[in-house]
Specification:
With about 500 residues, the chain is mostly helical. Helices cover about 80% and strands about 0% of the residues.
């Protein structure tokens, strides 16, 4: 018997936390390197740069690192380079270790710090681009594995129908009852596997949006109401008339649509605004940089850049920025106001760096050029990733239609089989419960929408719209398949 050591469990837990900490640092590092590069180009000292990092809440992991660096310098009396060198030895992140060690080496050698940081920043973005390409391949493999899981589950489902029904019927010479194994499979086992895949997708895919809560809030009351309705129909005899008026498949479809549509509309508004901001922010920064090169002040350069059209919903926020600047509102206050309206993490970080560049360095053209260049690179990486993952949405429609048509076809074909000595077909009971099986398939397709939403856009909130669309596609496929097969069989008889 294997023995379990509590120290091994604790070490494993700390190892997991360190890996998570390392992944978070790697995610924030491109922006951290950009901030240090911009501050170096603006003439900010290394220690002042770490002190500035303590106030950046958008980079929580690096903020903790900065607090630790400042603590060791001010409380323990170490110099900044020594602390950074120790951090490089302790961290599990290779990128972060190379960045810190290289920074220390560049400072000690007396080289051109801005040139080194710019070179390191370029390397980090290239490695991030390669990492995103690898993550796309992994996500693609995950989607393919999920589709295979659904197909295998479908095959097992059909096999159980045939085995339990025919064997039981032929042994006792009567029509069978549906096995409870089928209910366990379609209402528990398959959804559970979907949740496992969603958890894996959550670990692999990250959204650029932060604090997206409104769609989930909008789903709470519809979910409570529809769950109460379904439980009432299932367990309260006086409510059975509902299933007489509405078949179970229609009832489940309507309930799932009631849950999904309000959050889907809410998320659509959020996504439209933030995707427009992600697409327009690099162009805005480029316009600020070019205007600054002509000799305009930083504030006038921003006002000039906000007049550009074609940024969609983001143009409204740029107009508000221009109005606030003309009213004399500080850039720091403008950033706080923007943070209430925009939930895109890259956009907020870029604007924060712009504010820091102007406030601490006077908006030097070198610093602004670095900011605009790498903001454009980050936009291209994110757009390429989303565009590459979009085709997997089509795959979700394929497996939805395949599941619906296959199940309906098999059940309606099997109900026409008769056996010698039986007074009725052995699948009469299954035919009477087609709605239950159809409801289970519709529910599974609804869950698939959240998986695809996480894969394609990085957030489960995007899954509400895909879930609603897949529910409609599944029900229509079931309906068309049922009507077509029924009409075909009637014509054959």
């Amino acid at each position: 018997m294997p023995s379990f050591n509590i120290s091994d469990i604790i070490n494993s837990l700390f190892g997991f936390l360190r890996r998570k900490h390392s992944d978070q640092i790697d995610y924030e590092l491109p922006f951290v390197a950009m901030i240090f590069t911009v501050m170096a180009a603006s003439g900010i000292t290394l220690y002042e740069g770490w002190k500035k990092m303590r106030s950046i809440n958008l980079l929580p992991t690096i903020k903790k690192e900065a607090e630790e660096v400042v603590r060791q310098v001010e409380v323990l009396g170490y110099d900044t380079l020594t602390v950074m060198y120790k951090k490089a030895d302790e961290t599990k992140s290779k990128l972060y270790r190379d960045f810190l060690a290289g920074y220390v080496s560049a400072v000690k050698s007396g080289g051109n710090l801005v040139s080194f940081l710019n070179s390191k920043l370029r390397s980090i973005f290239e490695m991030r681009s390669a990492a995103e390409n690898r993550s796309i391949e992994k996500l693609g493999t995950l989607v393919e594995a999920y589709s295979v899981m659904l197909i295998v589950t479908l095959c097992i489902y059909l096999l159980l129908i045939v085995v339990y029904s025919t064997s039981f019927a032929l042994e006792i010479g009567s029509s069978p009852s549906t096995s409870t194994d089928l209910y366990v499979l379609i209402f528990f086992a398959t959804p559970l596997i979907s949740f496992v895949f969603m958890w894996i997708a959550h670990r692999m895919q990250r959204s650029t949006f932060i604090d997206v809560k409104e769609p989930y809030y909008r789903a709470v009351f519809p979910t409570i109401g529809t769950v109460a309705l379904v439980l009432g129909v299932a367990f309260v005899p006086s409510l059975e008339f509902i299933t007489e008026l509405l078949p179970l498949s229609i009832l489940i479809s309507l309930c799932l649509l009631i849950i999904s549509i309000p959050p889907a509309i809410s998320y659509y508004k959020i996504a439209k605004t933030n995707f427009a901001a992600e697409d327009g922010m690099p162009s805005f920064l480029r316009d600020v940089t070019e205007a600054r090169k002509t000799g305009l002040s930083p504030e006038k350069s921003i006002i000039h850049a906000t007049k550009r059209k074609g940024h969609g919903k983001f143009s409204e926020h740029l107009r508000l920025i221009r109005d606030q600047l003309e009213w004399g509102v500080s850039l720091r206050k403008i950033f706080r106001n923007l943070k209430r309206e925009i939930q895109s993490w890259p956009v907020l970080v870029d604007f924060l760096i712009l504010v820091e560049t102007i406030e601490i360095g006077g908006g030097s053209t070198t610093a602004l050029e670095i900011l605009s260049e790498y903001s454009e690179k980050n936009r291209d990486i994110e757009k390429n990733k989303r565009a590459t993952l979009k085709p997997y949405i089509i795959l979700s429609f394929i497996w939805t239609i395949l599941m619906a048509i296959t199940i309906t076809s098999m059940i309606y074909i099997l109900t026409q089989i008769s056996y010698p000595g039986l007074t009725e077909t052995p699948f009469v009971t299954i035919q009477s419960q087609v709605d239950i099986f159809s409801a289970g398939i519709i529910f599974q397709c609804w869950l698939s929408g959240f998986f695809i939403g996480k894969i394609s856009e990085g957030t489960f909130a995007a899954g509400f719209k895909y879930s609603a669309i897949l529910v409609i596609a599944c029900y229509l496929s079931l309906l068309v398949s049922e009507k077509f097969l029924t009409g075909l069989m009637v014509g054959m008889l």
